[in-house]
Batch of 2 targets.
Target 1
Amino acid sequence: MSAPAPSMFTPAAKAMAEKLGLKMGRANLDEFAATLEELAKANPNIVAVTSDSRGSGKLAPFGKALPKQIVEVGIAEQNLVGITAGLAACGKKSFGVSPGCFLTARSLEQIKNDVCYSDVPAVLIGISSGVSYGALGTTHHSLHDLAVLRAINNITILVPADNFETREAILFAAKATKPVFVRFGKAAMFGLHKPDTKFEVGKAVQLRDGNNVAFIATGETVVHALLAAGQLVERGLNCRVLSMHTIKPLDTEAILKAGRECRAVITVEEHMVNGGLGEACAAALMQAGVSKPFRIVGFPDEETVPGAQADIFRHYGISMEGLSETALQLLK
Amino acid sequence: MTDRELQLKAVHLRKKTLEAIYEAGAGHTGGGLSCLDILNVLYNRVLNVSPETFSSPTRDRYVQSKGHSVEALYAVLADRGFFPEADLKTICHYQSHYVGHPTRHIPGIEMNTGALGHGLPICIGMALAAKMDGAKFRVFTLLGDGELAEGSNWEAALAAAHYKLDNLTAIIDHNTLQITGHTRDVMSNEPLDEKWRAFGWAVKVVNGHDYAALTEALSKPAELGKPTCVIANTTKGRGVSFMENVAKWHHGVPSEAELKQALAELDAAEAKLKEG
């Protein structure tokens, strides 16, 4: 047995999760793989394309069950995106699946031209995104993907926070007639949603209401914002938490509402602070003339600190404790 | 259409290509003239595609990986009736969809290309889709020889052979010149035929201006279970004496006087063909 990975949650955070009734689910990666296999069994037009990544993408069972619906391209991400685009152009519902770090850097030109500019209904899945491969270093981090894809026309960008959002994102992508990018990590995630929650691309989900601080978070950071909001109640603060699962098109309405109704806004993302969710929110607020104390929590423009995903999150303040502290400072 | 009729058409298409580049004030002259006979054979003899069948899922697919030679492609597509010939006068104009590289806004264009090294991977996806569906359509792409320095081509070369895509044909417009000069000086890539064979392709080397040879090479896959690579030896700037084999005509735009001279040469070639 190898040593266990550092926990993403302190004992206090775990206690808060229990208090909020959050139940631990599986990794969004597992949810994606199971959903895609289920869809592909019902729709033989669905094809997964992998770059020696079927193991990392948890698609080995898919490959065994549906060998005619998976294309292996080898370690060749540019080719992966080109082939995914060509399949889509000929009527296939193709899902190109590769680690986010390679998919959105090495093959960026293929995403821009072959998928987005050519306007084919391909889906690109960035697995183990952000700092999921934490200790493997910067080569394996994707902290640029939201920024670069935001700057490319004609792609929907989805960053699910939990298993529910992941499944909904994949269901949407499977029906989409335009390019879609979905990114997530490989750690097990708490379920954050009530059973009757409606998922709509381009519409943030409000997980908690409040008018002191608005946390606008995306992807696997949302749980930390929710825990922080729980902790801040103990300090007499009611905080709003938005899960901004769609980075493009951005739910400007929810952002402006939060900016107008709350005393301060904190954005949280597993991404560099340059060009991600935070700057998108800042632009929306500024252009609407909404000025409130504002903080972007993400990774600064520096070589990312070495460590596991949990270590890196904690280092940069993406934790219940870190976000609570940021909120208190911002309200001072 | 006989070889002679196609050759006469080629003269007309060369004129249209040059006039379009002159009108646009921009374009890729040398490479357009070098691949024009290939496009002429593809669209008038080989490809199972027409304006009427362009939306059919079973049409043959052609993706121009060397997207910069778009004026020649536009001239061929207009001649085939995909859009009015008058549209050629709008290339590169404000708000015209006829931009300087192929886009799907134009009838007859399959994919948006222009950045090099993209066509072959896309065509592998298309050829795989055909195989998955048991569809009989064929997939063609045209690459420049300078373009072969892009590594993505070689990723794709491996995959096409791995998947035994005998419904895929890659044509290389082997004019041996690129923007900076001779390909052998910029980044040597010979022997091309041996390289493609080593990657598992069936290779045919032809004169890229010989209608009978092009037709023979393109009409059917070279070998069952292997993708076909047709290395078409061509002359950059073909058909206009002062443009032939001169690297500066890669994207040189003719002046009014140069256009006149070029058209006069092509008129003479046309007259000679008609006599013969």
Note: The CA atoms of residues 44 and 70 of chain B lie 17 Å apart.
Target 2
Amino acid sequence: MKKQKTIYESALDQGISRRDFLKMCTALAATMGLDFSQTDNVVEAMETKKRVPVLWLQLQDCTGCSESFIRSTHPKIESVIFDMISLEYTEVLSAASGVQVESNLETVIKKYKGEYILAVEGSVPDNAGYLMVGGKSAKDTFIRAAENAKAVISYGSCASWGGIPAAYPNPTKAKPITKLVKNTPVILVPGCPPIAEVMTGVIAHIITFGEIPELDVAGRPKAFYRHRIHDKCNRRAYFDAGLFVESFDDEGAKQGYCLYKVGCKGPTTYNSCAEMRWNGGTSYPIQSGNPCIGCSESNFWDNGPFFTRRAKVPGTQITINPDKVGVAVLGATAAGVAIHGAATVAKKKHDEKIRGEE
Amino acid sequence: MANPYHLDESSESAFKNEYPPKIEKVNNETVKIYVWELPVRIFHWVNAAAIFALMITGIYIGNPFFDSMIQGEASGFIMGWVRYIHFFSAFIFTANLLVRLYWTFAGNKYASSNLFRKIFWKDTWESVKFYLFLKNKKPHFVGHNPLAQLSYWVVIGVGSIIMILTGYYLYTEPQPESFLGKLFQWVPVIFGDSFDIRSWHHLVAWAFMAFVVAHIYLSIREDYLSKNGTMSSIFTGYKTESKDSIEDIKDESMPGEKNDKYYM
Amino acid sequence: MTERIVVDPVTRIEGHLRVEADIDDRGVIKDAFSSGTAVRGIEVIVKERDPRDVWAFVQRICGVCTSTHALASIRSVEDALDIKIPENAHLIRNIMNAAVFLHDHVVHFYHLHALDWVDVVSALDADPKETSKIAQSISDWSNSSPGYFKEVQNKVKKLVDSGQLGIFANGYWGHEAYKLPAEVNLMAVAHYLEALDWQKEIVKVQTILGGKNPHPHYVVGGMATPLDINSDNGIHAERLGHISQLIDQANTFINQVYIPDLLAIGSYYKDWTYGGGLNNYLSYGDFAPKDHYDIDSYRMPRGVILNGDLSKVHDIDLKDPTQVQEFIDHSWYEYKGKTQDGGLHPFDGETNLHYTGPEAPYKHLDTDQAYSWIKSPRYKGQPMETGPLARIMISYALGRKDVKTLVDDTLAKLKIPLSALQSALGRTIARGLESVLIAKWMREDMDQLLANIKNGNQVTFNASKWEPETWKKSAKGVGWIEAPRGALGHWIVIEDGKTKDYQAVVPTTWNASPRDKKGNIGAYEASLKGTPVADKKQPLEIIRIIHSFDPCLACAVH
Ligand code: HEM
Ligand code: HEM
Ligand code: NFV
Ligand code: SF4
Ligand code: SF4
Ligand code: F3S
Ligand SMILES: [Mg+2]
């Protein structure tokens, strides 16, 4: 990656003179409640080093993604937000509210055009009335922030796929953010929420290697989404052995058999849960006896029920029991065959009789 | 009689350069026609066997019905074996289809069919009327009737393609970076995410089942009505047909030659 | 002449909240309006779903009080289908709920609320030695050396010197409403960072028992997590030991860090008595030691207090159609095609989105009309405050000994009367005090769980009504729970094995509700009235009061 410009350098780029720059620093020191003697420090800092500015927008979300983010163990969240990045706007943690926090947003968009990272949590509704922030359409704010960002990180299944707001019947016509970004690279980090260390891991990758991580066809970082849960599951041996939990808390459940028959979606779910586990490697749903509901997959809300294996009717948000439907189709075919066969025989007999009479 | 030089008028055939089938005279009324050449018959039974194996193992994979409360260590390998058989059958199934695809071009006229001609759809409609008992006599076809052809196209043709694409995608999911994995990486573009792909695979599997039931019935029925040895044909290759019914064959196949030759 | 000022977005909360306030010439708030400006329609989304799946959907109402909605949901289904869960499952759920409470309260205090009382930048001026002295005088917490505080101060300095204040950028630093000495500010900043570290630990209780956090897994009928001390897969000694340790650490952190900080900070602000509000308090009650349906056994009791009258605690029946009702006169919804109507009990509730607010961008809401995505829940027509303060007041009024001792002690330490609790600060104190109790109950429940296991009871799930074939053709149920922010109810109507109707009436729906037809205003709006605002451009007082409720807008609207 090309060397990050310092604030001073970008100020010069924008035609601001050193004199104006110093003035700006003084003003900044003042707003920060510092006395003027500290201005020099501010100037020095801004001339020399810089953390990547990050804006974090919350759209139609539940803040579960933000909450997961602050659970990060390695890197520790403290070092992420104070050493790696400069989180300039977040509805959860920003000290400033109202116009003050809105102005942070505007400042970053203007001053760090093309340099800041935009993190987004939540989906975007069709109608501005369903989501306003600061009296403005959050969708418009998002589009503007995305256009001017260096990259967009789409945190969570809501931002990445539409998530719960977009589940049938999608009352607000919610869309994933990808539908609204044109020229800025988007990194999808799905999950409901994503694993904390996956979230900060993506940032650590960008900061450490100076580039966005390699993505798969769907736009997810391969480092965290290359395999299915099923490929790395601690219960996999029991799947292969044909040993399954039939009901929660049965003997098989206590033994740790495979959860496939109680609906586990691990075989169709791309996520790092089995590999990295949750909350500093403590456990993950399957380890704790719960079938995976596929929370990092697109449309997983409409791939239920969660405790049974079903098949999706292509092109719909509906699932069916494929074997039940299959047996029904087969039954109908067999019945049709029986009736048709009987009719064939009857007709042939009839025809022969007529021929015989001729 | 239709213009003997215009193959287009028979829906049984697709390509100009097919060679004619062998025909043997049985008596003055009937002839024996070599409809299903050996590769077709081998294909047919390998295909049938593979599909039965895939179906049974596939259903188990989708819903492992053995009572798993048989206590055991993870050292058992039931699902593992079932999947092995599924995959083994799948490779045979695929290879077999490829051979059949080749034979579509290399084999006799009954080895191919062409949906992109008007006559095909006309004949199909006539056949539908017949099966709905709207017509007493269906247009006679020595090979498959167009309705059968259509079902082969839809289920064996398109159906197999769906099963293969979705099946190999699922198969390579653990190794997305392998050669096969890369080969099938685009499958989600058409079939959706992993869950959707599995769903397609499972639903189309049942379409195969339904096809088999109808297919076997129609074969038996054809045999019963035409008394032409349809059933045995898929074993021996020969069908018994009345002399008249092959008029078109000889016309199409050997334009300009004397018909009598075939009766020797 | 009044001037209307706007705070939007209110940050350091969950979700999208807008506050408009009319301020008179003397700078006092005359009237206030709270608006939820985002909606998803989750009650509509769960319709027709398998009732056994609904917990996962409604859990996504909120990722902050994650798992409270899941628990309310499975309780509603179990109520409808008359499913009795094993005692162990109940205890595990209590322990998981307690973990959310403690996480939520601590994060609220340090990361969401503290900056309304603590001036981060002022910490630069502190003498770390003094801070150390203060810290050691109020607590045994080990991180209290001058060197330690010096290090924290250096961190702040580095941050400020970098010119990139990040989350602290553009705060109201230096505002006259900040009263703490620099040394106490430094201590609070140090604990801001420690709490950030601690909060990721306590949630591991949920990870062990529910697989992850946020959004752990649940099942109708008990818990899927198997207890088996002799199986490598079960919850065995190592896992139990891990949970125990986390519980003990939580008790320590709360008693040695949270509470001393709360009292230290509180003592500087005890004269700032604004933010009381309605004085109507509501709690459904929770934390039964054994059986959720044994309401008398609740350690967090049920009841209603009206007009601050502690001499009478009224009863609640969640199924009585005349008690809990939701109104939409000032909300962007329709009931049966009409934008105004009487209230509906949640069993008959409707969620039909109908936005009639201004087009973006707008300066002000038309507060005479509908102005929020939040509905207006009322108890027998009355607006209610719910949450820590309500629970503490109700327990106190009922004469619960543990609460009375704790409250009286605290009042004595701060030298304030009971009535002083009816304020923003009081709400914040109540939250801390109940954390002490919950951490204690968490330990008790864990001990009970261990005792059960010791006695050979490792059952966690009741499978008898798992299959829909065993269900009544139609059934109705309500699941209630005390969530960190207050009384939460989920009402479900099940028909033919499917969810026919679903309504959630959520703590923040109560607290942040807009006015109703009769003009009764909600708790947020009431609490702002009469508060002086020093600087209309920096309305720190408004966010301080609003924050004392710990707003959760995703919850309120859903
Ligand atoms: C007519 C042909 C086939 C039939 C009837 C069939 C049937 C099935 C069925 C019913 C399933 C279970 C799906 C579920 O999870 O619900 C399945 C799974 C699968 N099939 Fe097939 N299949 C066929 C061909 C193939 C082919 C050509 C492949 C290619 C390798 C293939 C690979 C797989 C794989 C990988 C799975 C998933 C196994 C697992 O995840 O454990 N199948 N099949
Ligand atoms: C999985 C099972 C089966 C499949 C997928 C299948 C598929 C096919 C296909 C594709 C053909 C056309 C041959 C070609 O052009 O290559 C065919 C023909 C035929 N099959 Fe099958 N078959 C199956 C089972 C059976 C069985 C069990 C029987 C008899 C008991 C049978 C009897 C026949 C007959 C008689 C023909 C010739 C039909 C005609 O004249 O059109 N098939 N089958
Ligand atoms: N209000 C609310 Fe919640 C809580 N506590 C839920 O019931 O925060 Ni998200
Ligand atoms: S993806 Fe899940 S956790 Fe994240 S905002 Fe959406 S619902 Fe919440
Ligand atoms: S528990 Fe789920 S992910 Fe694990 S092996 Fe079984 S089906 Fe696969
Ligand atoms: S439910 Fe989600 S958290 Fe992991 S195990 Fe499944 S993807
Ligand atoms: Mg509701």
Note: Confidence is low (pLDDT under 50) at residues 30-36 of chain A.
